[in-house]
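Quick start: what a row looks like.
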Amino acid sequence: MNLFTTNQNKSERIARFVISLFLLPAPFVLESSNYAILLGAVGAILLFNALIGTCMIYKMFGVNTCKL
């Protein structure tokens, strides 16, 4: 079993990509705080998920929306 097997459908990947575009610049736009850094980190994780198509949380729970 491949570690990076796609387990997200296309619409979910697009949604994650769009949300990440709003969260990634948070540390630069907002004041430098832990909250802004957390938002940027979540944005980076969502961008990684959108580009790769694999969500590790889905993989832990055995969810696969790619076949829908």
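That is the whole record. The longest helix spans residues 34-52. The radius of gyration is 13 Å.
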